[in-house]
# Entry
Amino acid sequence: MARAVVLPIPQELAVAPVALDGMKKNRKGAAHARAWLPFLVSLFAVFVTGVSVNAQTSVVVTKQWADSTLASMRADRARNDRATVRTTGMILGSDLVRRDPCIIAEACGFRSASLAQLGELDSALAAAQRALTYFHAGCDSTIVMRAYLANTLIDLKLGHFEEVDSLCAEVLGLWNDRWKAPGVYRSLITNSAIARANMGDLEGAEAAFRDALRYSLQANDAFDIDEALGNLGTLMYNLGELDSAEHYWRSALRNDIANGFTKRIARKYANLTSLAEERGDNVKALALFDSARNVRTTSR
# Structure
């Protein structure tokens, strides 16, 4: 399936979120709502022994190292995308490529999502397809779910919203509650919500975002709580429901402060600055802008 065009879609959340700089409320109604892109694992594997030395870093790539590295990626919801691409490249460049298809499939799934976040969509698509090719019945089922998740992220970037909503619905329908990757499940719900918002189904988008928030709160996952609150705030902002937008963004800000999410704290202050400007409260906007600038300065 050829992917030729890369659309620059702004994003509020995901692995590498950006602020709502310059984003203005759509005054023409729900049908023209703006888009927000999030963005946004292993029980069984074939056991082999293998050793490979990466020439650039002198890291000895063994199966134990690869398993440990992939486990760390599963646990780190805020992975650095460039670091993920480098590390998965080391895994895929080792002798393990010829020996353990489950490791290949999982590494490609992580690699695909990070390449998509970096805008390298052709490479992201190739990695996602490779993950699906190498996956087999002996691998953990959530590996293939992560590969499908990467595909939804690529399609969001390309503006293929109907495809995203359809694939998310299909994959979520196959989900087994025993699988140990609830973050993937919540990310699929979030991507479906974003697709619906872009197609003008604002009620469906809000319902899905609320589902994502409910599941995140049940799991006490601070990362996903922030994403869900941030997305709901953005949705309300674009619908002109400024009080609701402020409620969600301030809730997200409290969550970020409690968990030390410094970059996200700065983004929430920036969003609240835009909100104050929208209301014509320039004094409050200036104070919030100073807060955002101070957070960014101290985080350097």
About this structure: The first helix runs from residue 63 to 75. Residues 1-56 have pLDDT under 50 and may be disordered. The chain has two domains: 33-219, 229-300. The longest strand covers residues 51-53.
